Amino acid sequence: MADLIARVHWQTSQEAYTDALPVSYIASFSEKDRKKLWSEFLGSHGPDKFLLVAETDVPPKIVGFLAAGPSRDVERNQDGEIYAMYVRAPYQRRRIGTMLFSEAMRIFQRGDIRTVGAWVLENNSGAIAFYKHHRGIVAGKKVDVVGSDLRLNQLPYSFLIALV
Ligand SMILES: CC(C)(COP(=O)(O)OP(=O)(O)OC[C@H]1O[C@@H](n2cnc3c(N)ncnc32)[C@H](O)[C@@H]1OP(=O)(O)O)[C@@H](O)C(=O)NCCC(=O)NCCS
Questions:
Q1: Cα 148 to ligand 1 centroid, rounded to whole Å
Q2: pTM
Q3: Cα separation, 80 vs 82, whole angstroms
Q4: Which residues line ligand 1 at a C-beta cut-off of 6 Å?
Q5: Theoretical Cys-Cys bridge with 21: which of 1, 17, 69, 138, CB 3.0 to 4.6 Å?
């Protein structure tokens, strides 16, 4: 499973971030690194972390996924967090992201989680439109510095389960 998720993650990153990130940075992403990341995530899978996948019927193929679990954000008062959500470009705007997101909210709700966060790049206009569509509100900002000079402005979106 880790290799299938890694493939969707890597391919969608290459498709999605051309306007949001420098080409050289996108080119540095590797499927191998993604596989390591998802092997670790699946290896540490517990009742509080989960991975949802969206699959086509014909041919059977994973075209999207959402990974979530407890909030890692110590600064904000949130219980849950969407760690990653990716839908392959040819399958976007068909409500696959909405299906993944809505199912994640149902899982959080069953676990008595009331607030959920998600970090998004400030210039990732598609994901921001998606989070706004799902009544996300943004409060604050952080800057991740990569290497010596790449600054990634990230926005913390927050969702109240009662409202989504
Ligand atoms: C963000 C993402 C998961 C959304 O998935 P999706 O399946 O395309 O989303 P949906 O079809 O469920 O969209 C629901 C609504 O959100 C809004 N929306 C989604 N993508 C949008 C876009 N690119 N531009 C404008 N609005 C958008 C629309 O209101 C849309 O409803 P509509 O199509 O009826 O107008 C997908 O675009 C993606 O994988 N992006 C690249 C990776 C990424 O940025 N992930 C998030 C950060 S980790």
A1: 31
A2: 0.93
A3: 7
A4: 12, 16, 84-87, 92-98, 120, 124, 126-127, 129-130, 133
A5: 17
